[in-house]
Design brief:
This is Disease resistance R13L4/SHOC-2-like LRR domain-containing protein. Keywords: Repeat. With 304 residues, the protein is α/β, with parallel strands linked by helices. The protein has helices at residues 2-6, 124-128, 165-176, 199-202, 251-261, and strands spanning 16-18, 39-41, 63-65, 86-91, 112-116, 140-144, 148-150, 156-158, 161-162, 186-190, 214-218, 237-241, 276-280, 285-287, 290-292, 297-301. The chain contains 5 helices and 16 strands.
Length: 304
C-alpha cells in the first residue's frame, strides 16, 4: 500500500480511491494533483491520523469517508470542497490549526453527513454557522459524542470522569443548533449526554423531522423520549440502545404498540408507517400508567 501511495499522483485520471481497513497513517501531499478524484474512503483505517492540506485542491470530490480513523482534524479551508455530497467522520475540533464546524456552512449539496467529537465544541455559535437546516438535500445525519460509556448504574463517564451539569448544558446548546432540514430521512445520535434531547426533537409536532424514516439513538442520558414521534408520518424504524436515564415513555408509545398488536380494526393513527421498534439495554422505565421495569431487550416487530 505504501508503494502505491507514493506513485498515486501518476494516476491523473483516477476518480475512485478506496483504502478501507488498511494500516496507512496519512495520504501523500501529492494527492492534490489528482484533479478528477471524486471518491475517497478511509473507513476503518484506525492508524490514519493526517489529512494533507493538498486535499483542498480536489474540487471534484463528491464522497469523503473518515469513519473509524484517528484523525484529529481537517485543514482549514475545507469549505472550498463545495461539490461534496457525502462527508462521513468529520471531526468537530476547536483547535486553531483545524477547520471548525462553521466550514460546513458552504457545503450546500451534502446528502450524507456524519460529525464526530461534538463534545469538543465549546461555542454553540460555530454549530449555528454549520447551517444544517439550510442543506435542503441532506437526508442522512449522524451526530456523535465520544468516547463515552454508560455504566450499569445509569451514569455516563467521559474521558474517565463523570459528566458535570455544566457539560450537560453545553452539549444541549450545541445539539440545539444542529437542527436538520425537513427532508431528513435517517437520524443517528450516539453518546449524547444532555439531559434532554435537542429542542427540534422534543417539539410535540417534531416539524423538522416530518420526513424521517429511520431513527437510531445509542448511549444517551436523556430523560424522556419525544412525545411527537408517534405522529411522524413516514417513520418506519426506531432503535434506542442503552438509555438508562429515561424515566418516562409517553402514552403514545404504549397505545400504538397495544393497538398494533391487536386487530386491525383497533389500530390508531400513532406510528402510521412503523414496522419495527427496538428498545435495547434499558434499566428502568416509567410510562403513563405507572412505574414498570423494562426488559433488557424489547422488540416490537412486523406490526402489519
Amino acid at each position: 500500500v505504501v508503494a502505491l501511495l507514493e506513485s498515486l499522483h501518476e494516476l491523473k485520471h483516477l476518480r475512485y480511491l478506496s483504502l478501507e481497513n488498511t494500516d496507512i497513517s496519512s495520504l501523500p501531499d501529492s494527492i492534490g494533483m489528482i484533479k478528477f478524484l471524486q471518491y475517497i474512503s478511509l473507513d476503518g483505517c484506525e492508524q490514519f491520523v493526517k489529512v494533507p492540506h493538498s486535499i483542498l485542491k480536489l474540487g471534484q470530490l463528491r464522497h469523503l469517508n473518515f469513519n473509524m480513523t484517528s484523525i484529529e482534524g481537517i485543514p482549514r479551508g475545507f469549505c472550498a470542497l463545495t461539490n461534496l455530497r457525502a462527508l462521513k467522520g468529520f471531526p468537530a475540533q476547536v483547535d486553531g490549526d483545524w477547520c471548525s464546524l462553521e466550514e460546513l456552512g458552504p457545503l450546500s449539496h451534502l446528502r450524507e453527513l456524519g460529525i464526530h467529537g461534538l463534545e469538543n465544541v465549546i461555542l454553540s455559535s460555530s454549530t449555528t454557522k454549520a447551517k444544517l437546516g439550510d442543506k435542503v438535500h441532506l437526508t442522512s445525519l449522524f451526530l456523535s459524542c465520544g468516547p463515552n460509556s454508560i455504566l450499569a448504574n445509569g451514569d455516563l463517564i467521559k474521558d474517565g470522569d463523570s459528566v458535570s451539569e455544566e457539560e450537560q448544558q453545553q452539549i444541549e446548546k450545541v445539539f440545539d443548533e444542529l437542527c436538520p432540514p425537513p427532508r431528513l430521512e435517517n437520524l443517528d445520535i450516539k453518546g449524547y449526554y444532555g439531559r434532554w434531547l435537542p429542542r427540534w426533537m422534543m417539539s410535540s409536532s417534531v416539524v423538522p423531522l416530518k420526513s424521517l424514516r429511520f431513527l437510531f439513538i445509542t448511549d444517551v442520558l436523556c430523560r424522556q423520549l419525544p412525545d411527537g414521534l408517534s405522529q411522524l408520518p413516514y417513520l418506519e424504524f426506531i432503535q434506542i440502545y442503552r438509555a438508562p436515564a429515561i424515566k418516562r415513555i409517553g402514552p403514545d408509545f404504549l397505545q400504538s404498540y397495544h393497538h398494533h398488536s391487536a386487530s386491525s380494526s383497533q389500530m390508531v393513527a400513532g406510528f402510521p408507517k412503523l414496522r419495527e421498534m427496538n428498545l435495547i439495554g434499558w434499566w428502568d422505565g416509567r410510562s403513563g400508567s405507572g412505574r414498570s421495569k423494562c426488559k433488557p431487550f424489547l422488540s416490537c416487530r412486523n406490526f402489519f
